[in-house]
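for the recovery benchmark. tokens below, seq after
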């Protein structure tokens, strides 16, 4: 079983640009996601470096391990705009601390597939540049709170999976 988490920059352009929806083909006005600042990139890279066990350059993956058994795979071709984490071990305290520090130190937003899509940030100011129409925002104040948010949706995901496979 795995649980996917997506991190993205909290910075957005102030101007709207026309962009074709890749699924519907419809032209939409959107505010483009902007890259992290150099300080945010440094903070994220430092966090990744401290947890990195191994890298696989072929698939742009870093394998992250934590002393309490937490484990994740980080996929990114360019962390300037965001990246994906695949959690395969459950949410250990050290892993939750790492996930929260990414939000806080990197000024990132987090989302994950769930029944009720939300955007999670570590501070209210993380949403200052967010465009209208984004999923509802949730300000998370600690690794423990993040664990509760993710656990609720992990349970919902398991119910959905069990329904689909007929269990």
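predicted aa per position
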């Amino acid at each position: 079983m795995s649980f996917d988490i997506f991190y993205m920059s909290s910075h957005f352009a102030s101007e709207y640009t026309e962009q074709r929806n890749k699924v519907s083909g419809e032209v939409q006005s959107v505010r483009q996601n902007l890259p992290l600042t150099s300080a945010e990139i440094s903070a994220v890279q430092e966090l990744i470096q401290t947890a990195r066990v191994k890298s696989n350059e072929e698939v742009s993956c870093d394998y992250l391990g934590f002393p309490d058994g937490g484990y994740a795979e980080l996929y990114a071709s360019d962390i300037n705009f965001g990246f994906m984490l695949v959690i395969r071990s459950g949410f250990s305290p050290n892993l939750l601390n790492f996930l929260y520090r990414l939000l806080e130190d990197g000024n990132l937003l987090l989302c994950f597939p769930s029944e009720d899509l939300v955007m999670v940030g570590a501070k209210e100011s993380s949403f200052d540049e967010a465009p209208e129409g984004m999923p509802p925002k949730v300000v998370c104040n600690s690794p423990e709170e993040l664990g509760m948010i993710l656990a609720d949706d992990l349970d919902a995901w398991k119910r959905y999976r069990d329904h689909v496979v007929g269990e």
